[in-house]
Automatic annotation (TrEMBL):
Every Secretion system C-terminal sorting domain range: 553-617
Superkingdom of source: Bacteria
Entry keywords, A to Z: Signal
A molecular function GO annotation: hydrolase activity, hydrolyzing O-glycosyl compounds
Record organism: Chryseotalea sanaruensis
Keyword Glycoprotein in record: no
Name of this chain's protein: T9SS C-terminal target domain-containing protein
Amino acid sequence: MMSVMCPSSTCSSQHCNLSLLIGTLIFSFLSASAQRGPGGVGNNDGSSNLIYWIDANRQTDVVGVNLTQISDLSGNNVQHAILGNPTVAENFVNQRTAISFNGIDQQILTDIFINAASYPNLTVCAVYRPNIVYAGSVWGDYQSGWEGRYITDNAFNPPRTSNFVGPGFDPVDATHPSTVVPGLFSVENWVISSVVFREDVINGTEVRVNGQLERTFTSNHNPGAFNLFTIGAGGSPNAVFPFWFNGYIAEIIVFNEALDELDLPIIENYLSAKYDIALTSNDLYAGDVSGFDYDVAGIGRIDASTVRLVTQGTGIVSIEATSIDVNEFLFWGHNNDGLSAMETSDIPDGVEARSSRVWFTSEVNSEGDAVDIGNLNIAFQLSNLGSITVSDLVLLIDSDQDGLFSDETPITGAYDLSNNNYQFQNVTSISNGSHFTFGSSNISETPLPVSLLNFKVSIVNADILEFAWTTASELNNDYFEILESKDAFNWQPIIETSATGTSNELNTYVVQYDDRHHNGRTYYKLRQVDFDDTSTDLKIEKVDRDRSDEVALFPNPASSFITIQGDEFDHVEIYDSQMRLIKTTTQDIVQVNDLLEGMYLVYIYFADKILVRKISIQSD
């Protein structure tokens, strides 16, 4: 049964019953409207127009560095066949993961169609980085007759024969190529492209690059069945020209509708913040410049009918506006700190602890000027945070934007909407540039959950990390776990240590861990587990390791041979400036006098990582 805490300490039974009814209606509305897709557009349960979604940071399986499995996040259970062993590059784009395709024989083949017969209207958003000028196709469904939908570079070959081809170019007529779409294949630069197909609508199909509309054309595809949707190529390997992609792909999102001028910028701002890719148009979220680039979502209104009043996105916060005027938008994102209420220094009177996770808001119009949307209903989904008494929850807003919560007045009166959803209604103090978080006014009743005073991860030496944390109190606490992750989504337990049980005294824990196999950024999570196996995640810390100097390659420039010195590696691949594989070896001394003069990339493969070095080959 759902429980709703009446904001007043004394109320009539009739009033409480009314509050219960209101809470039930609110939760039903939020469940239906607060969408969980990228940026809060579409749902991730298969119930919306979001038909396909992959993210290299989430639900991937890797053996060594080879991608072996990736899951569809749309809720439609799209299946994949991974061909040619594309590899995973961790911490590659804004400390996030990407998938590397060699431009030779690697792709991800799905079991869905994106042809005009299945979906006359279609939107495909992609985040990628081409390695070379003629990088091939990021995605596509080409099979034969050049009538598939795909995005390819302007070196399409054989010659363009019709306007049936994909949006990498727009043919002038039946036999002549078009001009290049600006920025679509910017070498060694990350790109957000959005292609919106409106089949048979004159100039209705759009190509957007980093939020900017760059090309329109008439999409007039043959409605026949084409090939399965492919990532990392324009078609399947049994097509005449699969157009293998040479570069990196981080995220692909597909809707079976033509997204409008509200939803498309919301997704583009979500991707821009996540991957630190500047938008040249419709850059509406400012929190990404200060590190609040996680789980960005947005609402807004374009005109009388194009409006989104409530959404949630990939995070735990959903926001509903009671009304939004035309040309008003609200975006929010967080700093990815731990959810648990453990901050006890920057808190106002009446609050005993607050969450370390803080959210940033942008409340602007399309020109980026500040606006006032008005009253907001802000809800938090607080699963895995232990027992919560709703009257103890507080909302903290840095309304004067001085960087402090301690000088603010806590907002109380939250509603329990069931399923661990708690909402603060008619909030008026959010404005453009505000920060907000939640906390507890009584950590003995609502500790959120173990009263953790601190959690610190320290680098002891090149191989050893030290974890230290202190609790002020514990209740039925069986043990602690420490988990690690490269993406802050997928976690693996690495340490387990016994806890005190029940205690009202300070307890300090110190453990060490051999992390010599990690490079770049790694996240560490402290988890508390009760005797009844109930677990609560307490805090996340991150560690940056730079092991780039642990492998030496010399001489450089070289003419006869190179020596690779350092940690034991699996094998080495040498590529020329066009990313063509020239040589493969397992030896630490590599003969190079058979190579032409020029710059080469040396890929050094380890069990859990890849290091890349540049080397110059010169003649004797």
